[in-house]
């Protein structure tokens, strides 16, 4: 099937047609879904959008347990194998054929165009392109398809990043937001004025930079307070092979309706109303090797149906408000780690911090915040008051040596900073 081939039809009609094609493809080629359809006695030969909610949900556990069954093409067609980040469990393998790689390039090309990047721009990629990381590959393919200049520098080493920026004059960075803070810190210590460089904006991945009201969260505010560049929020996952990206209006992440069908569902599997919070559930469109049907991402978002001020119709989603399985119930309060991270990021005297959820002898949630060992008693007391005011509870404060804490956060085995450890039973 061709991606985005019909620009004349209303986007909803076009998406419904693409969805029907994907369901029929899945029924014909996917061993996993063939088995599921048979077990549930489902005849999907003429499934309409009205009947779509009757189709079974796919979970992360299903994908991990029956991983090989999801492959819907001959082994000889597979060109690239990537893995998920393993945020909520063990990493899961994901395969792509040539058409999937072309779709991946189209996905990122459209995302970059939405931001306003053109072939006249030069983009420095500060994320890894190795270790089976699909995002780095996607950025490269998308920028190449767009015709923009590419600097494949990879992750880490602020000194090398700045040497490249000053020499090659890129206009945009692709970066984890917290790494931008490291670049700012290096620049300030080495006499580099961030605001007098070629960088106009940054495409931020891996960490949220906005809240549910589209405002910059404390992490985003901390970056822009020192570096006056435009930050663009993105949301993506290996399983979706699709990115949801902000436009210059910054009113939510646009859904690429020619590449993915989305539902935002409550705990009973019913669609939430516009502006309400639910779990993002997706069906890939145009994926051949490992297509997914009604796949629960585990991410809690708000659905936005109003027309964006950029003029584009179609739905958008808010920033991720939390992961469903990471909800912590502590001292009578239900809270997501992301809410705690935002509170910690807005506290001025902290640089390194780690959240740990564990269980006590009664199997109740215990919440701890790890900070550096040499944090003064005054700062600790102010932090307790700050957390009480912002998240309504005071976690246990645990002190670690700076080196130990940094090793836990910037674990070389992880593609992105680790700020939350879930050690509950």
Quantity of strands, as a count: 20
Largest sheet: 6 strands, mixed
Mean pLDDT level: 89
Structural class: alpha/beta
Uncertain residue ranges: 1-8
How are strands sequenced across the largest beta sheet? Answer: 4-3-5-6-7-8
What percentage of residues falls in helices of 4 or more residues?
25-40%
Broad CATH class of the largest domain? Alpha Beta
Q: What is the fold named in CATH at topology level of the largest domain? A: Rossmann fold
Portion of residues in beta strands equals 15-25%
Shape: globular
Q: Separation of termini?
A: 45 Å
Could you outline the blueprint of secondary structure elements for this entry?
Elements lengths: L10 H19 L1 H9 L20 H6 L14 E4 L9 E4 L1 H18 L6 E4 L8 H13 L2 E4 L5 H11 L3 E4 L1 H13 L11 E4 L13 H9 L3 E8 L4 E4 L7 E2 L5 E6 L11 E8 L10 E10 L11 E2 L4 E2 L4 E3 L2 E3 L1 H9 L8 E6 L5 E8 L4 H15 L4 E5 L1 H8 L10 E3 L3
Parallel strand pairs: 3-4, 3-5, 5-6, 6-7, 17-20, 18-19
Antiparallel strand pairs: 1-2, 7-8, 9-13, 10-11, 11-12, 12-13, 12-14, 15-16, 17-18
Helix pairs in contact: 1-2, 4-5, 6-7, 7-8, 9-10
Describe what this molecule looks like in 3D:
This protein is of the alpha/beta class and 425 residues long. The chain folds into 2 domains: 323 residues, ANL, N-terminal domain (Rossmann fold, 3-Layer(aba) Sandwich); 96 residues, GMP Synthetase, Chain A, domain 3. The chain is 31% helix and 22% strand. The strands form 5 sheets. Strands 4-3-5-6-7-8 form a 6-stranded mixed beta sheet, with helices on both faces. Strands 9, 10, 11, 12, 13 and 14 form a 6-stranded antiparallel beta sheet that branches. A hairpin with a 5-residue loop joins strand 17 and strand 18. Helix 4 crosses helix 5, helix 6 crosses helix 7 and helix 9 packs across helix 10. The longest helix is centred in the first third of the chain and has 19 residues. 38% of the residues are buried.
């Amino acid at each position: 099937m061709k991606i985005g081939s019909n620009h004349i039809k209303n986007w909803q009609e076009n998406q419904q047609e693409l969805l029907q094609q994907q369901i029929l493809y899945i029924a014909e080629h996917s061993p996993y879904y063939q088995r599921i359809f048979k077990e549930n006695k489902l005849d999907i030969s003429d499934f309409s959008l009205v009947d779509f909610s009757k189709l079974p949900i796919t979970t992360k556990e299903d994908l991990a347990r029956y991983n090989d069954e999801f492959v819907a093409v001959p082994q000889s067609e597979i060109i690239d194998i990537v893995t998920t980040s393993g945020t909520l469990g063990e990493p899961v393998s994901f395969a792509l054929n040539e058409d999937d790689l072309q779709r991946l390039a189209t996905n990122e090309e459209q995302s970059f165009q939405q931001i306003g990047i053109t072939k006249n721009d030069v983009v420095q990629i500060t994320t890894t392109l190795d270790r089976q990381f699909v995002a780095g590959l996607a950025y490269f393919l998308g920028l190449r398809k767009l015709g923009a200049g590419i600097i494949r520098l990879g992750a880490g080493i602020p000194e090398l990043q700045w040497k490249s920026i000053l020499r090659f004059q890129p206009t945009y960075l692709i970066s984890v937001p917290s790494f931008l803070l490291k670049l700012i810190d290096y620049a300030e210590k080495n006499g580099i004025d961030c605001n007098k460089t070629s960088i106009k904006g940054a495409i931020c991945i891996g960490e949220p930079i906005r809240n549910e009201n589209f405002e910059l969260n404390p992490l985003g505010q901390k970056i822009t307070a020192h570096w006056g560049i435009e930050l663009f929020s993105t949301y993506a996952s290996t399983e979706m092979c699709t990115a949801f990206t902000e436009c210059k209006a910054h009113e939510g992440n646009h859904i690429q309706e020619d590449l993915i069908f989305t539902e935002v569902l409550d705990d009973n599997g019913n669609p939430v109303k516009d502006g309400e919070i639910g779990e993002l559930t997706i069906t890939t469109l145009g994926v051949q090797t490992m297509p997914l049907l009604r796949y629960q991402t585990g991410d809690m978002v708000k659905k936005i149906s109003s027309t964006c001020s950029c003029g584009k119709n179609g739905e958008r989603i808010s920033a991720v408000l939390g992961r469903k399985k990471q909800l912590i119930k502590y001292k009578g309060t239900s809270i997501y780690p992301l809410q705690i991270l935002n509170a910690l990021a807005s506290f001025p005297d902290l640089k390194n911090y780690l959240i740990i959820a564990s269980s006590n002898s009664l199997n109740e949630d215990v919440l701890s915040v790890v900070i550096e060992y040499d944090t003064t008693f005054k700062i600790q007391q102010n932090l307790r008051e700050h957390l009480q005011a912002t998240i309504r509870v005071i976690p246990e404060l645990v002190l670690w040596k700076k080196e130990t804490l940094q090793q836990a956060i910037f674990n070389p085995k992880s593609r992105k900073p680790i700020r939350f450890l879930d050690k509950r039973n």
